[in-house]
From TrEMBL:
Lineage: Eukaryota, Viridiplantae, Streptophyta, Embryophyta, Tracheophyta
Species of the source: Heracleum sosnowskyi
Start and end residues of each Protein kinase domain: 35-296
Family membership noted in the UniProt record: Belongs to the protein kinase superfamily. Ser/Thr protein kinase family.
Residues of the whole record sequence present: 467 to 762 of 819
Protein name stated in the entry: Receptor-like serine/threonine-protein kinase
Length: 296
């Protein structure tokens, strides 16, 4: 019997290696009321997301991958294998999955306040986000990212960090979501090259957008763009095309020091006036995306 790589990967997901509950299709259907429009939360990159509830009344988000692309299956396997091993208060928790009947379904904790995207780019809603709240969100994202990069045993590069992939729970705590494009580094590996560039242009570092080279630094670049967006409320058009990024920024910041990032953010929070805090956060955002001054 020769198993296709696909079925080997699925068998792996179903084995205990991932230590995740496998839900049967009936349970999922029931939980989501037949995947109806009524409980659809939205449309993600790989298919619709529905709201559901488990037997113990825990609210869940059910991500159902569209069945028509094998690209979807790769991403599904990638997402499960990556996130199943992760546990952090600033990462959306994967509750379980289902691979029955050719389905590829991921079950996540439900995030009551949707994505950061809807808060920062809507002027009316944004005015309800005061500075302490914005800082809590910024620090939370930084903590989640640091966990991915260094605190979890794996070194994970998210590769698609952006406002719409930051979800907010009922207390407005931010959690990084969508690991479909993430890559795990093994051993002493610190960077990789790919010919298949995935992610979102506005947030991509030049070396990744142009040469397909990625590392923790490319995530930090995206984090910098995100910081500028949270502070300014504007989608960063400056970086919306890779050529622009190249012309305007040259090489992305090369001297990323993981410990430094949280320290700088903490310092910014200690500033005495709101105005100074905003200024410092903009500085940090720019530092994340700017040319490395020591690289000349
Ligand atoms: O901005 P949103 O309302 O938040 O619209 C998108 C949509 O599904 C497609 O990604 C929402 N979504 C994704 N995952 C979750 C989750 N775990 N809890 C609540 N909503 C979610 C996302």
């Amino acid at each position: 019997l020769k198993l296709s790589p696909e079925s080997v990967a699925l068998n792996k997901i179903e084995s205990e290696e991932w230590e995740l509950p496998l839900f049967d299709f009936k349970t999922i259907i029931k939980a989501t009321d037949n995947f109806s429009q009524n409980n659809k939360l939205g449309e993600g990159g790989f298919g619709p997301v529905y709201k559901g509830m488990l037997k113990d009344r825990q609210e869940i988000a059910v991500k159902r991958l569209s069945n028509n692309s094998c690209q979807g299956l790769d991403e599904f396997i990638n997402e499960v294998s990556c996130i199943a091993k992760l546990q952090h208060r600033n990462l959306v928790t994967l509750v379980g999955c289902c691979t029955e009947k050719g389905e590829k379904i991921l079950i996540y904790e439900y995030m009551a306040n949707k994505s950061l995207d809807s808060y920062i780019f809507d002027e009316k809603i944004r005015s309800s986000m005061d500075w302490p709240k914005r800082y809590t969100i910024i620090i939370g994202i930084a903590r989640g990212l640091l966990y991915l990069h260094q605190d979890s045993k794996l070194r994970i590069i998210h590769r698609d960090l952006k406002a719409s992939n930051i979800l907010l729970d009922h207390e407005m705590n931010p959690k990084i979501s969508d690991f479909g494009m993430a890559r795990c580094f093994e051993g002493s590996q610190t960077e990789a090259n790919t010919s298949r560039i995935v992610g979102t242009y506005g947030y991509m570092s030049p070396e990744y957008a142009i040469d397909g080279q990625f590392s923790v630094k490319s995530d930090v670049f995206s984090f910098g763009v995100l910081l500028i967006e949270i502070v300014s409320g504007k989608k960063n058009r400056l970086f919306s095309h890779p050529d622009h990024s190249l012309n305007l920024l040259g090489h992305a910041w090369k001297c990323y020091n993981e410990g430094m990032l949280l320290g700088l953010l903490d310092e910014a929070m200690l500033e005495s006036s709101n105005q100074m805090q905003v200024f410092r956060v903009i500085q940090i955002g720019l530092l994340c995306v700017q040319e490395d001054p020591t690289d000349r």
